[in-house]
Amino acid sequence: MDLNRIQTLQLVSVRWWNASAYYAISLCDALTQSGFRSYAGGRGDSPPLVKARRRYDLPLFDIINLESLNPVTMVQSLARLTRFIQNPTISLVNAHRPEDHIFAYLARQRSKRQIPLIRTISDVRPPKDQRFNRLLHEKTDFFIFTSKSSFDRYQSVWPIFQDNSAIIYGALNTDQFQADPQSSRLRQHLEIPESDILIGIVARLDPVKNHDMFLKAAAILAAKVPNARFLIAGESCNIQMDTLREQALGLGIEERCHFMERTPEWSARELIAALDIGVVTSRGSEVICRVAAEYMAMGKPVVVTDVNVLPEMVDDGINGFVVGNSDHQTLARRLELLCFNPEVRLHMGREARRYAEERFSYSTLVEKTLEVYAMLLRRGETLL
User: Fold this and answer.
1) Contact predicate 50/384, CB 8 Å
2) Quick check: helix, strand or coil at residue 131?
3) Which residues have CB under 8 Å from 131's CB, separation 6+?
4) Hey, where are the domains in the chain?
5) How far is residue 160 from each of residues 105, 139, 163, 231, measured CA to CA in Å?
6) Cα(72)–Cα(151) distance, integer angstroms
7) Element spanning 323, H or E
8) Which of 21, 43, 187, 200 matches a 20 to 30 Å C-alpha distance to 14?
9) Which tens digit of pLDDT belongs to each residue from 89-134?
10) Cβ pair 53, 60 in contact under 8 A
11) How far is CA 315 from CA 308, 335, 358, 368, in A?
12) Minimal CA–CA distance to 65: which of 80, 85, 52?
């Protein structure tokens, strides 16, 4: 096997554009940019595949539907997947969701080529302790966990992952996310002076993102830091923006807050560029946290809660702070420290950028993933 000619199939059967989908598609993008052609596989009209085609211009394997429970569709998809992996140019299959995992295993069983099967795990929940599920995992060559918290959950159910797994964090193109020394267009639009300190949360409006904790901390901080302003940006999901406005009004800080529904007019880069401090207050989810990596890549100190991957990304007191996910008072104190100490804010921002480049960049993602792929392919050669 010429390791310089690795080509992969990344199966990503996700019904919406979420963190798992982002991890899979960004991995395809990073590998393909580095010269390792990687196909995004799944339903052609699914949000991840549409994004892979329109935004990333990736090679696709889009004639399968592994999400369907229709028996005819399932049989057709399995047959098509089996034929695809019989192509000798495909080096391995990396499954990113449970349904991908099952179909990839069955296709490999039917195939004449026993190519490596990898499962990337970005699940918040532990695995179901069922006989077939355990067999499926025991017959899988390797596991990539997107956080140590996920590894610990799986290992607590089946202690079988210690010697055949790696933790590889989600990544972003750090060349596209960099600190911008120019005055922010968004700050100008919102008429926020450069002397004001803008603290923001960029997240979908959902209870799991814990916006009420952010607003409670903002109310404490507003009484102590006259030039503190607060940005909440996100798309309405299970909470409406007006609900958060009413909460801010009840806390007496509505005039200090800026509420922005996510629209194509304002990219994530522009939203983050306007900030002095980035915040993630989630009470759950966050097995992958793209926005924390984006904050860091753009040189922003980050204050996060102690949920899943977040304390793995933020080194408390170095590139930001970690607080309890229901402790708005400590959140307010950490933000106050950053507001009153611009030199600390600047130093932590520089450290955040360094962490992003070293741990959450495309180059690191490719390097660590290729180490796994190469090891499996060499192992397969020795077994022939």
Assistant:
1) no
2) helix
3) none
4) 3-171+361-383, 185-359
5) 18, 11, 8, 44
6) 35
7) strand 320-323
8) 200
9) 999 999 999 999 999 999 999 998 889 999 999 988 999 999 999 9
10) yes
11) 14, 16, 13, 21
12) 80
What does the alpha-carbon distance between residue 297 and residue 179 come to, in Å, rounded to a whole number?
Answer: 7
Phi, psi of 118 (to 5 degrees): -115, 140
Give the fold, CATH level 3, of 185-359.
Rossmann fold (3.40.50)
Instruction: Give domain 3-171+361-383's CATH superfamily.
Output: Glycogen Phosphorylase B; (3.40.50.2000)
Domains 3-171+361-383 and 185-359 share a fold: yes
* Chain centre to alpha carbon of residue 159: 26
| Residue where the block lists tokens 């991890």 | 23
- What residues of the chain score a pLDDT lower than 70? 1-3, 183, 381-384
Who contacts 108 (Cβ-Cβ below 8 Å, separation ≥6)? 85, 93, 114, 115, 117
CB atoms within 10 A of CB 176: 12
Q: What amino acid occupies position 97?
A: R
Which two structure tokens, joined as six digits, stand for 56? Answer: 């990333």
